[in-house]
Amino acid sequence: MFMGEYVHSIDAKGRIILPADFRQELGVTFVITRGLDNCLFLYGQQAWEEWAAKLRALPMAKPAARALNRFFFAGARTLECDKQGRFLVPANLRSHAGIALKQDVVLTGVDNRIEVWSKEQWEKYNEEVEPDVTAIADSLSELGI
Question: Cβ atoms within 10 A of the Cβ of 7, count?
Fold first, then answer.
């Protein structure tokens, strides 16, 4: 399970250091793709296969299912870290997440995935969501939360 929040910089070549706490669980190769809320998702191979199976099970006759499949699969790439523990974020994914070179990014552990945010977007997201967490939890109470 991934937990925690880490701030690192993206270098001039588009590489980010993967926190040591995440490396072992993520594995040697992992998948990066577009995420929701203008961030990126990193999945270990097993978690990616589980997520991909759920996407494949959606009814392709429904436009929303096709759109969701395109969103996640078209943006996906298999990556691995270099000897210094860095991974390269492709330019199209940096653009999706609003991440500029030589900028701070936030890596957050969210159960079965890691999210990569521009620091600015992460702070903005937290300012908008944090005051409403109690209301969000209440609205999900019927789901057993």
Answer: 12
DSSP state of 110: E
Half-sphere exposure of 57 (CA within 13 A, CB side): 6
Strand order of the β-sheet with 77-80 is 2-9, 104-111, 113-118, 40-44, 29-34, 77-80
What is the C-alpha to C-alpha distance for residues 118 and 73, in angstroms, rounded to an integer? Answer: 22
Q: Which of 125, 145, 127, 126 is nearest to 136 (CA)?
A: 145
Nearest of 7, 93, 98, 101 to residue 42 by alpha carbon:
93
Pick the CATH number of 2-119 from 3.30.465.10, 1.10.357.10, 3.40.1550.20, 3.40.50.300: 3.40.1550.20
Report how far residue 120's alpha carbon sits from residue 105's, in angstroms, rounded to the nearest whole number.
8
Question: How does pLDDT run across 91-118, given as a tens digit for each residue?
Answer: 999 999 999 999 999 999 999 999 999 9
CA 71, 68, 125, 79 torsion-angle sign: negative
